[in-house]
Specification:
2 copies of one chain form a homodimer. By secondary structure, chain A is α/β, with parallel strands linked by helices. Chain A has 9 helices and 9 strands. In chain A, the strands form 2 sheets. A 7-stranded mixed sheet of chain A has the order 5-6-4-3-7-8-9, with helices on both faces. In chain A, strands 1-2 form a two-stranded antiparallel ribbon. In chain A, 36% of the residues are buried. The first copy, chain A, binds a DNA duplex (22 and 22 nucleotides) through residues 7, 9-10, 31-33, 42-45, 47-48, 50-51, 55-63.
Chain lengths: 217, 217
DNA sequence: GGGTGTGAAACTGTTCACAGCG
DNA sequence: CGCTGTGAACAGTTTCACACCC
């Protein structure tokens, strides 16, 4: 496979196309121009993105939605179920546990962990909270049946790296990190961060920017 | 202000620098090389990012942390408090209401809204939930005192655009959108999206990728 | 010496424009 | 004829390398 890698931005857009065409039940075929209208992504870029993975379109027609969604589903790895471990049963962790979209999209949180003695053993949204210290053992037993190599980290920032180390050691290959901390992991492990404060800061930067522009006029 | 705009990626990194130096209580001065170690961002890029906004460093020394954090705080608009409206009191909304980092960072959620009749009037985390229909009126009254132009949207995807329209009409200039939907807003309004499923899809794409590479070896 | 700030080079990602196909 | 797929132009971002300053 000498094919060069697609960028993270391309993958983000791919998912956006996927979600958008799933919602486009009003049509059977979609042109890049029409998809552009619905997603906000320029038509040329949509064609570039898609053509990177194959020739899914029909000249003169567009993209057949059934066909395209199947391809995208496969490319994004969403043509199967994934078992996910959640570490850190705070407010955010609980919110994700009950996030209804997950099930629909093939993500199944099947193990939850925390380190607080008063939480361990308790039940949350139907799951028994297990001790973070037992992660390796639990995931590896679990791993035989399913594919337990995605983890969601919703622990406080000061223990996030420690938790990440444990997860990597237990064979986790992909981490969705909600903690406001940079995680350092081996090359073969992928981390994506969701940092709410960072996104908020982007907004306040923008608003401050505008104000100082107003003044200078 | 003829200065060209900094990219969104630059702003993201700026916040990362800011957070990192706030945690770096062990030192008074930091070189771009040291900051690179702590953030994972290449030193040259750190210098480029910072030099875009001014000359904050001291040749031969590095960046004085007090000085740099003050500059970054100002640039990011975090040298003041911001009042934030939250729309949609579901699981995610509730998690954000109690997110402790917000207060520390100058974000204060001060109004919360929902459309469900059984929620309106109830109290959540110390706030009375108000009717989404009254947003304009409430925000504009509130707006006289503070700056009520940031909103967090945690409503279902199918009503997100409708809510965004109402918010824009009520004078909101910046939206943090958790709904899995593309929001179309006027030019002068900024939206940033947090899309958990999209981030998860990036992970499954990566894992699927790896598997097919393994096979081809 | 040591480290910033910055032009210039290298690279990456996006847009253009059109040949070619259905 | 309409729309895809794509090479080529363009734009934006990152890296390099070094002059200059403390």
């Amino acid at each position: 496979m000498a094919k060069q890698k697609a960028s993270q931005d391309t993958i983000k857009r791919l998912f956006l196309y996927y979600r958008t065409i799933l919602e486009s039940t009003d049509i059977k075929v979609v042109s890049s121009e029409e998809l552009a209208k619905r997603t906000g992504v320029p038509a040329a870029l949509i064609r570039k993105d898609l053509s990177f993975f194959g020739e899914f379109g029909t000249p003169g027609k567009g993209y057949y939605i059934d066909n395209l969604s199947n391809h995208l589903k496969k490319i994004l790895g969403m043509d199967r179920d994934w078992e996910v471990a959640l570490v850190g049963v705070g407010n955010m962790g609980r919110a994700l546990l009950t996030y209804p979209k997950f099930k629909l999209q093939g993500f199944k949180i099947s193990q939850i962990f925390d380190s607080a003695p008063d939480k361990i053993g308790k039940t949350c949204a139907g799951f028994r909270i297990k001790d973070i210290a037992d992660i390796k053992q639990v995931l590896q037993k679990e791993g035989e049946s399913g594919r337990m190599n995605i983890a969601i980290v919703t622990v406080p920032a000061n223990v996030a790296q420690e938790v990440a180390n444990i997860l990597v050691d237990a064979g986790v290959r992909a981490i969705l990190n909600f903690a406001p901390a940079q995680l350092f992991v081996p090359e073969n492990v992928i981390v994506t961060n969701i940092d709410v404060s960072n996104e908020m800061a982007r907004l306040t930067y923008f608003l401050s920017q505008e104000e100082s522009e107003d003044k200078s006029q």
